[in-house]
């Protein structure tokens, strides 16, 4: 039987574990995409039915070889299997070693079972990173604070997407809706009972390209950044109040207006626009692109009695998959 690797000098003793397990889930942005990077608020919802589980093990590195990390992805047979870690995961593992004083000559083997489609604005990369951090902590018997988990996931997100706002790193571990602004997170009060429908366009979004496209537009058009951030903040604040005050009829148009803001910034696509129009035509109160843009998913606020009609219309309009997110009243952290 293998013995666990010795801890780095000065580290606490390790538990004798051979497998560590960590879990996380998807998220969706209700309002605030892109503007959150510039200090505006964002509203995020967890998507618990789309989850990722990481299983981590270790093996001794060869003589004279530095410990590395290998990654295997399971799930859809149509998804290529990765045998080496991504740059973000490799950096995350290295930073975990440093933060948790894990010996550098230990090779890490990570298996990810991820049900979150990548490139859809659902937080796939952040959820995978969080699951890996928790799996490594479990493997080596280390207690990790919420701040340490966030910092490690955020580091991986910055590699994957460039300048990450921190929304994804937080929301993929949150039990309920969140308000996020300038690095501060708080529970989002919800006084409404309803549901959202998320539809996958089938197009892979490109967050880095979307961020660069928006930044380029701001640089070429003086004043456009201030207008974008001001309008985004206005819509997000109004939506937050409508959520708290149980006013779905008021909330819906704010989603659609935010979609128009992102479409004007050239972050939507014809396929996403078609899904938005289909949802509205079938009875949704509001609909918009969600996530980084240039592909990905759409989210629609829908009365429960219209959910079936909206879902059928979305699939007819080209949606590859749909998910329903129930919205329940939640007024505090213990709700």
Automatic annotation (TrEMBL):
Main location: cytoplasm
Pathway involvement of the protein, from the record: Isoprenoid biosynthesis; isopentenyl diphosphate biosynthesis via mevalonate pathway; isopentenyl diphosphate from (R)-mevalonate: step 1/3
Family from the record: Belongs to the GHMP kinase family. Mevalonate kinase subfamily.
Pfam families on file: GHMP_kinases_C, GHMP_kinases_N
UniProt xrefs under InterPro entries: GHMP_kinase_C_dom, GHMP_kinase_C_sf, GHMP_kinase_N_dom, GHMP_knse_ATP-bd_CS, Mev_gal_kin, Ribosomal_Su5_D2-typ_SF, Ribsml_uS5_D2-typ_fold_subgr
Protein's UniProt name: mevalonate kinase
Top-level taxon: Bacteria
Keywords for the protein's UniProt record, in alphabetical order: ATP-binding, Cytoplasm, Kinase, Lipid biosynthesis, Lipid metabolism, Magnesium, Nucleotide-binding, Transferase
MF annotations from Gene Ontology: mevalonate kinase activity
The GHMP kinase N-terminal domain, residue ranges: 101-172
Entries under NCBIfam families matching the protein: mevalon_kin
Compartment(s) where it occurs, according to its Swiss-Prot or TrEMBL record: Cytoplasm
Enzyme class: transferase
Enzyme Commission numbers on file: 2.7.1.36
Gene3D superfamilies: 3.30.230.10, GHMP kinase, C-terminal domain (3.30.70.890)
UniProt domain GHMP kinase C-terminal: residue ranges: 240-319
């Amino acid at each position: 039987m293998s013995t666990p690797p010795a801890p780095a000098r000065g580290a606490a003793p390790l538990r004798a574990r051979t497998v560590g397990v960590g879990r996380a889930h998807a998220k969706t942005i209700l309002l605030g995409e892109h503007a959150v990077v510039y200090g505006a608020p964002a509203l995020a919802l967890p998507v618990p039915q789309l989850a990722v589980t990481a299983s981590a093990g270790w093996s001794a590195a060869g003589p004279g070889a530095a410990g590395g990390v290998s990654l295997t992805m399971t799930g859809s047979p149509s998804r290529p299997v990765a045998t080496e870690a991504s740059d973000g995961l490799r950096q995350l593992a290295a930073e975990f070693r440093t933060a948790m004083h894990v010996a550098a000559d230990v090779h890490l083997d990570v298996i990810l079972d991820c049900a979150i489609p990548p490139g859809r604005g659902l937080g796939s990369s952040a959820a995978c990173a969080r699951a890996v951090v928790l799996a490594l902590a479990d493997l080596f018997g280390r207690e990790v604070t919420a701040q340490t988990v966030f910092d490690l996931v955020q580091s991986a997100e910055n590699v994957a997407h460039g300048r990450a706002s921190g929304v994804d790193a937080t929301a993929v571990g949150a039990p309920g809706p969140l308000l996020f602004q300038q690095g501060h997170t708080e529970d989002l009060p919800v006084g409404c009972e309803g549901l959202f429908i998320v539809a996958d366009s089938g197009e892979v979004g490109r967050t880095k390209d979307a961020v660069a496209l928006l930044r380029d537009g701001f640089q070429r058009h003086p004043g456009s950044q201030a207008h974008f951030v001001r309008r985004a903040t206005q819509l997000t604040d109004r939506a937050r109040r409508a959520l708290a005050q149980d006013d779905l009829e008021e909330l819906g148009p704010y989603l659609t207006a935010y979609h128009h803001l992102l479409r004007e910034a050239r972050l939507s696509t014809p396929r996403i626009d078609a899904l938005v129009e289909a949802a509205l035509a079938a009875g949704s109160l509001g609909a918009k692109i969600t996530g980084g843009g240039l592909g990905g998913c759409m989210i629609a606020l829908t009365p429960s009695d219209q959910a079936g009609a909206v879902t059928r219309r979305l699939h007819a309009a080209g949606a590859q998959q749909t998910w329903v997110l129930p919205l329940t009243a939640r007024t505090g952290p213990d709700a």
